[in-house]
Amino acid sequence: MAWRCTGTTNLELIDNLVNAGIISNPRVIAAMKFIDRKDYCPRFSYEDSPQTLGYGSTISAPHMHGYALEHLEPFLQPGMKVLDVGSGSGYLSACMAEMVGDTGKVIGIEHIGELVQSSIRNIQKRHKNWIESEKVKLIEGDGRLGYEQEAPYDCIHVGAAAPTTPSLLLSQLKSPGRLFIPVGTDSQMILVYDKDKEGNLHKKELMGVMYVPLTSVKKQKNFFG
Q1: pTM of the prediction?
Q2: pLDDT confidence of 1, banded at 50, 70, 90?
Q3: Is 60 an annotated catalytic residue?
Q4: What DSSP string describes the chain?
Q5: Which of 45, 57, 60, 93 is catalytic?
């Protein structure tokens, strides 16, 4: 059903995700309705498929953003801190910022400098105060290393596929905390890692996917031209 959720407006898109059973949490639904995907994806904004951002990057299909927010929701409570690796257009960072509220914080890290600047402009269209207050902080950097300066995080989302789970990201999770990450090369799987109060890790496989690789700027630009 996921790929059949395309709408003609943002509200219709989100309603279709609800009707397909992809999202059901009221807070997730409200956040995705509040953040208009068109501000971050001007072409085919409400189509339920990935769209190119240039530089070998994409904005994920809406149903994948829905799955991510649903699984991270317990760790997107007001006042919590989030790391969004491969923040791209800034769309998911904005959804998460709406969920963590005025006392929370979202760090988006993206290694393509041009995308960092465009994502800042995207969020500023309707939420300039989020950027000015650093409730949302979008930075250029290698997300494979996480962002130690703001660690630890209640949850970490990774928007590109790592060949193996980066241990540095797990080390930057709070206890308890949750990591949502696609892992693999030819065959990829969404993995959810939960760190409990004692710091023990528990892994769960969610679904097979196909994401762009989590790699270096040079390799990404060379590979995708």
Answers
A1: 0.93
A2: very low
A3: yes
A4: -GGG---SSHHHHHHHHHHTTS---HHHHHHHHHS-GGGT--SSTT-SS-EEEETTEEEPPHHHHHHHHHHHGGG--TT-EEEEET-TTSHHHHHHHHHH-TT-EEEEEES-HHHHHHHHHHHHHHHHHHHHTTSEEEEES-GGG--GGG--EEEEEE-SBBSS--HHHHHTEEEEEEEEEEEESSSEEEEEEEE-TTS-EEEEEEEEE---B---HHHHHHHH-
A5: 60
